Protein: Isochorismatase family protein
Organism: Sporosarcina saromensis
Amino acid sequence: MEALLVIDVQNGIVEFADFQKELTVMKDVIEDFKRKGKPVIFIRHLDDEEESSLYKGSAGSELHASLKEYAECIVEKQTPSAFFETDLSSRLEKLDVDHVFIIGFNTEFCCQFTAIAAFDRGYKVTFIEDGTGTTNTAESYGMAGLDIKDFVGTVLHWSNVIEVLDYEEYIEVYK
């Protein structure tokens, strides 16, 4: 069984920049999974630090209105990995999931960490590169010209264990 993990699509991240393209891809993938009757699990990051845009109980920690209506199942986490100290593994096991697809925010942290953790737990993993976004930039890392999504996608692809697709490839292979 395939399941979709929608990671950290929360106000404190989405309202940081213009993520309309990424949100459109995410919505299309979510709707495809829903149409096929496959599980869609939203992951929500909650911080204990009041200064954080994802501070639990704050407006920033809430799921973004653009996708909130699809969130029937939500797993809360406090680290980049959606598996660490959460019940995600047991939920996936109950659903007999063996293949997870990953979309959401932030590409190089929560999406990447969750993809690697899923592989480590024996799941087939598909990372939809243009269905992820990040609040960071090349300047954040002091690396002029860095395309964070492409870099992470390339690293995961080169691992030869995580399938990395863009949305058009996803449609060709899975729709």
Notes: The first helix runs from residue 11 to 14. The chain has a mean pLDDT of 94. Residues 2-174 form a domain with the Rossmann fold fold (CATH 3.40.50.850). Helices lie at 11-14, 20-35, 65-68, 88-94, 107-120, 148-158, 167-174.
